[in-house]
Amino acid sequence: MSDELLSFNITKKYLAFKLECQANYEYGITVLTGPTGSGKTTLINCLTGMVMPDQGEIKFLGNILYSSLQKKHVPPEKRGFGYVFQNSALFPHMSVWKNIKYGYDLTPPQKRQIKLSSLIELFEISGLLERDVSTLSGGERQKVALARSLATSPQLLFLDEPLSALDKTSKNSILVYLKRVWKDFNIPMIYVSHSISEISALAQNALVISDGKIIFTGTATEAFQKEGNT
Question: What is the pTM of this model?
Fold first, then answer.
């Protein structure tokens, strides 16, 4: 692929599963798709640093994040990535505003590229800021989760099936916001999903994983044609 962003060649073994993947990600929005249990979440957990591979190498913009040969493992908080989970993972004891500001405050001033006011405007959440997160709908929670992740000014945003628990209307709304994130902030994304509608509406490129191995890289359209889609 051209414009290489993230490259990896890693192995991670569990009792009944082995992840053995080699591929590159490029700039833009790329989907990671494949059957349930194929290793999607394990792979992105390795790439984000939440899980340490057994061996191999991970490089981001040419910099080594993990190397078994060099015995190097950059911790998640030092990788400059954002991560949006399926269940939003908001802090229940904080208001919407405090959730969003949390990541912003942890980011060194010289690395703050995104204003909180820009995120509040983008996601249209000015009326939610004083709310307790327990009172939010599923769609509102994911908007806040996205704003919180982006408040750290990430160089790359990971999203692990962020819309799977939402209704159709909420899904469509969040997809529009994600397109605007790429357009307005130029932040590349790695989006985990097996939904045809989500991928076709959002992703430009695709990696397909099966049984712990990358079996296809190319455009999202090519991935659907080749796999007959899951």
Answer: 0.90
DSSP 196: H
Measured CA to CA, the distance from residue 75 to residue 66 in angstroms comes to 9
Q: What is the pLDDT of residues 37-47, one digit of tens each?
A: 999 999 999 99
Q: How confident is the model at residue 166 (pLDDT cuts 50, 70, 90)?
A: confident
**Architecture (CATH level 2) of domain 4-227:** 3-Layer(aba) Sandwich (3.40)
Residue type, 150: L
Structure tokens at 67: 């190397």
154: nearest Cα among 81, 76, 78: 81
**CA gap 77, 66 in Å, rounded:** 14
The answer for 153, left when phi > 0, alpha when psi is -120 to 50, beta otherwise, is: left
